[in-house]
Amino acid sequence: MNKCTVNVEYGVDLFNETVMREYLAKDTVETLLRTVNEHVPLDPAIANDVAHAMKQWAMERGATHFTHWFQPLTGSTAEKHDAFFEPTGVGQTIARFSGKNLIVGEPDASSFPSGGLRCTFEARGYTAWDVTSPAFIKRHGNGATLCIPTVFCSYTGEVLDQKTPLLRSQQAMSKAVHKLMACFGQTVGHAVVTLGAEQEYFLIDKKYYLRRPDLVQCGRTLFGAPPARHQQLEDHYFGSIRPRVLAFMEEVERELWRLGIPAKTRHNEVAPAQFELAPMFEELNLAVDHNMITMEVMRNVADRHGLVCLLHEKPFAGVNGSGKHNNWSVSFAGRNLLDPGSNPQDNAIFLATLASVIRAVDLHADMLRSSTAIAGNEHRLGANEAPPSIISIFLGQELTQVIERIGSGKSTQTETGEAQLRIGVDTLPPLPRDSSDRNRTSSFAFTGNKFEFRMPGSSQNCASICMILNTIVAESMQSIAGVIAKLPKERFNEGLQKVIQGVIRDHGRVIFNGDGYSEAWAQEAARRGLPNLRSTPEALAPMLEKKNLDFFDRMGVLKPAEMQSRYDVFMEAFERKTTIEGKVALELARSMIEPAVTAEFGVLTKALANAKAAGVAAGTSAIRGVAETLGNGLDALHDRCEALEAALKRKPADVMKAMGDLRAVVDRLELDVDDARWPLPKYSAMLFDY
Ligand code: ADP
Ligand code: MG
Prior knowledge:
Distance between the termini: 41 Å
Bound molecules: adenosine-5'-diphosphate, magnesium ion
Structural class: alpha+beta
């Protein structure tokens, strides 16, 4: 027997098509599936039946509560649970869950960030079921809750969440893809944007975590000298996975599989104590929800294993940070448009799609960068590791050659045998898929049949990233399709060739296959006029530029007021996080570090006095030397604390600078103070003892 029988309960906690067929009448299922597949609103006529089925199914699986599960602009998910039960008399109750409960819920929205879109006194927002994402059961302890994925809006219709703009951007993509494919005579099919989000994370032992107030409150260490050995030997990456970590991974995967989340790959990452989980790619909206659930499951399972899962972009200085590579593509009628085909027609579609992405990324690099502008990424992007803060496209050698031959405009065979590639006539040479020609330093890399956006931080919600990506590509596709749609049939290929040549001429500057970490690239990029938005405020600023406000408005994805509100929310989050970090650093330095150093200093000066009294000269110069180092360190510590306190009254950049200055002193003192006295668990313990 060849049958693969894995003892896995796949998708059992998901209200999927199989469950629908079991619990609902055939007609209702068809109506519901149409709703899901065609992204149309739920027919109110079936809402009650669907709600009843969902309740029945969930209660049979132990659920006592339901919640509208949504994604506010806080960056995490939100939920408010309601019991199914309603009392009907003394000691009597009935389980109730109506179509109205299903379609619209009304959270008390006043405490969610809205960037001034909605005044708190009229705290009225509502959540509505996003039928394209199936309901699921979340388990906890002995209980379970039915979660209904929803979008979150204000009563005046402005979006307050991450999902609504994502759905709008998918609509824009869908329209654009249909328009483009119609140019190639293909009119029947759905456009599907796909996402595979590779999730990086750290695992450390809980006993260390709880003794690090900086990790507990900020998610990253604000002090800590890197140990002599960390990732230089490159022995962790893809190394054998420790049994304790493997036990964690297995439990995570089983939980995810129950929810129909296709966790696929697991491995050690570059830094010690760093790992990655990659799912099989899925339809974008679903993949976004699945990634949010994945992060939550990882945190919860880690807790049960006495571990803590750190999703911050840069928990430890001096070793690699964590990203979330967004692998993005788009397909039509089941064919991946970024997959170079095997015949001239498919190649032409591929090249038109590729050209749309190149044009979009060059025109809107600033907005793409803005989608990754969060406090945690500040310490990651451009800091000598995974991608710089410059957006550039890596195409690989072969594809670049193809593009150059198209762009060259050379008519036919040249002396060297180099021919111009003729679109729609020639077949592309076979391109390597995601293998030899890899470039890990590129921020936006073509990897065989998809683009991999590597800037997003490990803690980020993919919705806000892909919303931007969808919108800018949709516009480019529309623009290209607009031109080629008008071409007479006999001149179609020639016309398309010209369009693609134009894109390469005007936007080819964004293509870069070299080392993205090098200083030479930063200079070259500046010469090419590519933006390099290093800090979070710089990277958020484009959101308020008129051209961008108009653009997202025109594309029907974000109204100017909505964009403005998102800017406010993100900027405020950055400022608040920086202030919290500054305060925690100050408190740690004053209440933990300074006393430890002072005590050490006291021991040394006392030893010095004792030696003197005893008439012992040997050793005193060494003790004096260390005491002086510590004394100077104490003075510097004191001064830099004062400086940080002053900076906390100024702008975030000043706070970050002052924190860096303070850290330099503290990390030096860590090496001079008695190990037993140092009040914070050290990097060597956290990164290796798990
Ligand atoms: P790596 O980048 O580590 O080499 P892979 O190339 O195996 O990893 O794939 C990375 C991710 O890309 C996986 O989540 C995979 O499912 C996803 N992926 C593959 N094809 C597509 C596609 N057409 N659209 C979106 N994501 C895809
Ligand atoms: Mg990758």
